[in-house]
């Protein structure tokens, strides 16, 4: 899976949770919770959906690494490598 | 009982609990004496902000830290009691200059910024009424609450104003002033003021408005099963309850550093994230950032937090992450842990004992009660899963509604509605503009809470569930009607029914069932469109997390959607009495 595929999965995951937003319009370093009005339950669902879709184990302690688009792509890319 | 009690031993060192023996304190307690323990205003009046701030300055504790604020990005600001006095005096002067008077409603809409704390307490000094709004509300919940509450002034950030208020601001004729923080003073939106500028121009001494104990002070919105949100009216006398419950239920001592993680947009963050700790002369720790377990443990350690008041959803998330990471932190200063918002499951109580070396103390109250009513106390054995016993001065009972009133249920562990004997100081004094709705809460000399509970033979109370359809998600009450109304505004929606679906983290999540109008067909795209529609209007705290399509929703003869039936079917539970069902689900 390429880095672009991972990015697509992250962006689609976000627009499933917050369809009223355009995740491509926010920067890679923006805090998703603020930029997309995502609460802690939304974020949990976002991470669980990524886990299911990409078949990557994401331990809870790593969740904060996925709080930005850039962070999520880096983290998943490293895990899938 | 499947869970063993957690026994408390008398500590021989360290801080002795404020409530050493439950029975003794209850026997000697009176609200009159608690009131006398406060100073009151020089003329005999009572003002929450005076008891919270000015009183300590007058008693020579002006240099004591009142508030330590931690910014998202690592900033840190300290405010002493004398600082808070000056700043809230300035804020009150700024309000008065603008013509905001006693009884006028001032709304606050922002994250946990220092200005929120200053605005809340400064508003009270001016004799005006403060009404906090949760910053994660969308435009509709904000607007409906400000309309119902006759907002005269709003204190918010420029970003929140532009995103959630500006579009409809002029449709609220009573809203005369908008004060902005975190704003670009060179290019303010039309009709707004910079709070910093207004405060800079104001004097820093202020004579507190001589409020009486029964003058309105706070307006907290909560949700019912039907109709619009309800504005629960609280008065300045509530501070007597905040002082007592902070001292007895949260065991706050003047040298404590208290971290209440609740946002002041909700009643817990106002009563126990501001008023109770300050009234008891302690130091508030405020973190602007959202939940992040490692950050939280760092805050507990670095800020030497001694009293920590948080919520089951956060505790369950920490539990999931596990205890290993907790061992990296020195949390030895933590003395008292408490939880509120929804019942804390016994597993989490037992886990906390093992994870932190001390258990979480669950307690129970609601927006209407203004303060903690039933609690697990520092000196009292905990039965995991129980909300504890009533606060001294509070009479609680389990009752059954009867055609002619209510009957008290004396039998241990019999289920009924939790009821409280009216008359405690922080009791709500009305739902704003809705006298009938208020009166209906009191039957046969009891305030009926709408919560179903049981009491055991030792006097401990156990939560069972809500008596109505109100949803409790992450500790917040959500009215299904508010969510259904927003969904109905979408052109594709013919009917909507909203329920609380049990969730291991949040307690319940908001789930919507939707039937479409002719010409629309269910699809994944439409589901997302409806979700986005609801989120845009309601914000993430209120909008549904799940939406399912139905061809028809179950209804009574009068056309009322049977949420109870939707919920029973969602959960696979017995469907109960179907005699009123006229049109069934498809």
From TrEMBL, chain A:
Gene3D superfamilies: ACP-like (1.10.1200.10). It comes from the Bacteria. SUPFAM superfamilies: ACP-like. Signal peptide: none annotated. Residues 1-80 form the Carrier domain. InterPro entries: ACP-like_sf (IPR036736), PP-bd_ACP (IPR009081). It holds the Pfam family PP-binding. This is Acyl carrier protein. It comes from Dongia sedimenti.
